[in-house]
Amino acid sequence: MACSFFMGCQKQIAAVDTSAGTSDNLSQLADTIYYQWGDQSINRQEIYDVVKYNNDKTQVTSVTSWFNNFRLGVELVPTYSGNTVTVNSDFHDQYILDAQGRVASHTSTDPQPNGTETYLTEVYTYTPDNYLDKIYIYDSMYFADVNVGSKFLVSIAQYTVSNGNYTGYTLKDFALNDQTGYVGRKYNFNYDVSKNAYLPISFFVPITADNTQLNFDKYMNYGKQSAHLITSIDYYLLLDDMTSTVNGTYTVTSTLNSDNSVTSYSLQGTALGAMPSDNLSPIPRDIKISYLPK
Questions:
Q1: Cβ atoms 200, 289 nearer than 8 A
Q2: How far from 66 is each of 31, 46, 53, 75, CA to CA, in Å?
Q3: Which helix (H) or strand (E) holds 256?
Q4: What are phi and psi of 218, to 5 degrees?
Q5: How do residues 119-135 score in pLDDT, each as one tens digit?
């Protein structure tokens, strides 16, 4: 992504950052990233991503994910062609980039004997000053038995920005026979505005917003991100019984290196004890990052 969740928009290397140039500080390129997903994860609670770059450090050339106990999960290798990035995943994930190198859409397809059925499409919109505005999530699996090829709007993620920081996120979900929608989750993000910090992974997309089925997503370009160091996250979730809700606050503890790059952060708070109504990602409880040497 062009900028990180914890830091204002500066030059940054990302998987598809074809327009923003190269980083002035190569220590800000992540080498290995550890995620501990915690409360809402069913399996793969611990994931290590090893990220490789091309020689001039302008593109990611592979992301190899190691699951629990360093069991190899998958190596994802992108193919770059103009404004299209295709990944060798099971679902043939493809990203279309806009003129600024940001992700404009992401499509996953499920190969079928009689052709290719698109099963997930995400469309990203941005504000005029380069902040992420909305994500529209479409799914054709609902129509697999009745109208193959149709797309059904399942969710809209809406962001709010204040003083250079993402301060809010609201996910509105839709049922197949009811397009009025309901709020499935909300986040409020709180900051220490006296501290800038840099995180070389996507936090809002997909870690809190979208999904983490494809680990390559975390290293894409999604425009500007927040300018300051996050200190806490207030959350609201509708649970999978479609009636109960849970809300609370995670306190965020971070460590930084001498370049103000985040080397770890940890969320402390009460375990949720239930699954959310949507099928999006949980908030990770821990992230640890190592960087390429200068």
A1: yes
A2: 13, 8, 18, 9
A3: strand 245-256
A4: -70, -10
A5: 788 899 999 999 899 99
Residue 135 tokens, joined: 């994500």
- Can you give the pTM of this predicted structure? 0.83
Residues 6+ apart with CB under 8 A from 89: 74, 76, 108, 214, 216
CB 103 within 8 A of CB 2: no
Q: Which residues lie below 8 Å from residue 238, measured CB to CB, with a gap of 6+?
A: 182, 183, 184, 185, 244, 245, 276, 277, 278
Closest to 210 in 3D by CA, of 129, 131, 134, 115: 134
Separation between Cα atoms, residue 171 and residue 173, nearest integer Å: 6
- Where are any strands of DSSP class E within 77-163? 78-81, 84-87, 94-97, 103-112, 115-126, 132-139, 152-162
Looking at 2-11, 37-46, 196-205, which range is the least confident one? 2-11
